[in-house]
Amino acid sequence: xxxxxxxxxxxxxxxxxxxxxxxxxxxxxxxxxxxxxxxxxxxxxxxxxxxxxxxxxxxxxxxxxxxxxxxxxxxxxxxxxxxxxxxxxxxxxxxxxxxxxxxxxxxxxxxxxxxxxxxxxxxxxxxxxxxxxxxxxxxxxxxxxxxxxxxxxxxxxxxxxxxxxxxxxxxxxxxxxxxxxxxxxxxxxxxxxxxxxxxxxxxxxxxxxxxxxxxxxxxxxxxxxxxxxxxxxxxxxxxxxxxxxxxxxxxxxxxxxxxxxxxxxxxxxxxxxxxxxxxxxxxxxxx
Length: 287
Known about the structure:
The chain has helices spanning 46-50, 78-84, 101-111, 116-129, 134-137, 147-159, 177-194, 205-211, 229-233, 236-241, 248-258, 270-282, and strands at residues 3-12, 20-30, 35-39, 61-66, 69-70, 85-88, 165-169, 197-201, 214-219, 222-227. By secondary structure, the chain is α/β, with parallel strands linked by helices. The longest helix is centred in the middle third of the chain and has 18 residues, at 177-194. The radius of gyration is 21 Å and the shape is globular.
């Protein structure tokens, strides 16, 4: 599923004393199967942008085309759109409400009036995809689970709708390091195995650096920068100017360079840094 965003503008409380421009003339293309990261400080427009992708918000101006179809056209079936574009909000576990994990994940598919057998298959598959044991977890209350497990139940509920696009707003927020690694690992494997177009909103430069194909940097409702992680993290001064940082590894490389070591500054993953440091120790690194 391809997504084309054209001149998207959103103004909250337009024509009132509290008018606020959240998005201004956003142009963006997302290709089928891409993994996109969206970063920006609080209030930069990240969450407002993604809520337009399945029609939860309507633009003040501009539009979004999904596979060439204007999703804000009056004849568009929003129910069908929201099945195709799955949105996982921050702290989605707070939206769990059923007495068992099975019933919670089944809520969406049941609203599609699917046969019970297909609902069963979808629940089992989605639980397996997010790393939850179907047999041991399906009859448990979601409120008895750990924070990371509840988060995965919520994501499984979205996956059970069989979306073509998965949009996640800070999916690791509030989790301990282990839970964070588990959730992000599951998202990465999900993208790799199923080829879902994936859009990840995050404040963590480290998470974004190791997961995505391209990064969209937002600032004050506009797109300040788009590029691969390597291209974006080269622009350290711009990122710092708009209140963002660098991945920990990129900071380390910059510090090594300041100390006179001949290294590239656009290294941002542990794997690449390990290679550089080993070569430095052997005296054979050539930037």
